[in-house]
Amino acid sequence: MFYRKTSERHFARIDVTGRFTGQDGDGVRDLIADIKQGPDRRCVIDLSRLDFIDSAGVGMLLVINGEAAAAGKALALVVADGQVKKVATLTRIGMIIPMHDSLADYVASHVPEAVLANPCAPGEDPLAVAARALRQEMPA
Questions:
Q1: Are residues 134 and 111 in contact, defined by beta-carbon separation less than 8 angstroms?
Q2: pLDDT class for 110, splitting at 50, 70, 90?
Q3: pTM (2 decimals)?
């Protein structure tokens, strides 16, 4: 398992590639340290380019989630189609860690704090303001 952490405007994005198995304990420890030490309160682990995950990998995701929660961080997963999606669905990990089909789905379901901090103009629809802000936040 290999990962790369990128700071987006309102969250940290962690792209995971390769195979995620019980052999990845060292990588998971490094990932947990990155999440805990980072300034972002929200972290998205993008598994859409992961080739394979086994039950030990799912268990490690639960450990990562627990450590993130203990540090005051909210974790979410992006899981595309394929073997990883099948395992995630069978194990029902989405009942513990929120799962999304794409990064765009994640962004659409989490309104940035900046939108909430800026009040609407008189007569302006708050949902329209939020939708406009989300379109600006979407990664290209």
A1: yes
A2: confident
A3: 0.77
Distance of CA 68 to the CA centre of its chain: 11
Can you give the three-state secondary structure of the chain, one letter per residue? CEEEEEECCCCEEEEEEEEECHHHHHHHHHHHHHHHHCCCCEEEEECCCEEEECHHHHHHHHHHHHHHHHCCCEEEEECCCCHHHHHHHHHCHHHCCCEECCHHHHHHHCCCHHHHHCCCCCCCCHHHHHHHHHHHHCCC
Q: Which domains does the chain have, with CATH numbers?
A: 2-109 (3.30.750.24), 111-140 (no CATH)
Contacts for 3 with CB less than 8 Å, ≥ 6 apart:
14, 15, 16, 17, 27, 31
